[in-house]
Amino acid sequence: MELPQMPELMGLSLLVGLLALVATAAVAGGWLRAEEKPSQPVCQKKNEPKKSGSKKQKQNQRVRKEKPQQHSFTHPLLAAALKSHSGNISCMDFSSNGKYLATCADDRTVRIWSTKDFLQREHRSMRANVELDHATLVRFSPDCRAFIVWLANRDTLRVFKMTKREDGGFTFTATPEDFPKKHKAPIINIGIADTGKFIMTASSDTTVLIWNLKGQVLSTINTNQMNNSHAVISPCSRFVGSCGFTPDVKVWEVCFGKKGEFQEVLRAFELKGHSASVHSFAFSNDSRRMASVSKDGTWKLWDTDVEYKKQQDPYLLRTGRFEEASTMPCRLALSPDTHVLALATGTNIHLFNTRRGEKEEYFECVHGECIADLTFDITGRFLASCGDRAVRLFHNTPGHRAVVEEMQSLLKRASSESTRQRLQQQLTQAQEALKSLGALKK
Q1: Is the pTM of this model over 0.85?
Q2: Coiled coil where (predicted)?
Q3: Domain-by-domain residue ranges, the chain?
Q4: Given CB 3.0 to 4.6 Å as the disulfide criterion, which of 37, 150, 185, 341 pairs with 205?
Q5: Cβ contacts of 406 within 8 Å, gap of 6 or more
Q6: d(CA 347, CA 329)
Q7: Topology given in CATH for the domain delimited by 87-390
């Protein structure tokens, strides 16, 4: 009796199943449409002109954010900022005739600046390209017709010759061959003797090499200081000095014969008196004075005009405190007349009067990166520093004040009228310079 009802039940089951499938398909379709809806406006936005411009704007903003901003710095004693480099500047050098400043940066260029433009609104420079490499150190030749650079990737010296054009500019030509590779450790400094007789390169191990101008090694100096932190040629070209882990500065004499032939390198003298490693040192313009700064937190001024061949040691003239040197590396620059000592740690510069040992000026956050080089121009009027993409030049007010003090002291002892007139003229010039800078002390 129940068998006749089964077809009806089966038909009902099939109908319910069919409806369930239709409902499931409808729901799935709704989900798919719901998932597609968010993506549809995005595609439309991409195709809209206004939104397209907005995206380009965001891309430009992203590029601008990635490009490092030029560090801004102002100070009443800031004379100029040289800003043509697009990379960080690592080294500077003033030419011996005082007309040019050479700078090198990791933008693969060396720039030659005219010093007569320093106080002008526009600062002209000429560019020399360093192909397939960049220079970390640069030095002018004594005749100012060439310069040498240390190549970062090739680890060697390259010579560039400068030729003046009819329009007053220069062309720069690299010599066909670079110097051979001899150093096994990173280079810390290079130099050319003012006599033009030799070139010095120093590495961070204990090696200092003396070269002739053709790229041949004349002598190898082992400083025995565990490591070298600084090395330099004296302005008189007689000496090469180095400092490092030991608490002294070692100086050698580079000897040549009467006919200009190289003879030997002899130990000359040492600066002894620091109690910790020496960060840096410098010679005065006449090589008769030296200054040094140490991790012991002091700087020292020395009289090096001694008969070292008779075992006479340099005299200590003055010691000053500089605590910053005990905690971080320090760079040093001595003015040509030895009246001013500049010390740089991090991005800050401190200027000391060496006659009294007192700090007179302080420049804070001068660069966006740690100061890489610090030097006075050959007249002592300006102090130059670099570290980021700019060279900053400061008026040397402590130098003018030192001249005022010295001239006033000499005037009291002057015996002749002509001497008094000459001293008074120098005194007046220094006072007027300070007055124009608003730095004349009452």
Answers
A1: no
A2: 413-440
A3: 87-390, 405-440
A4: 185
A5: 339, 355
A6: 11
A7: Methylamine Dehydrogenase; Chain H (2.130.10)
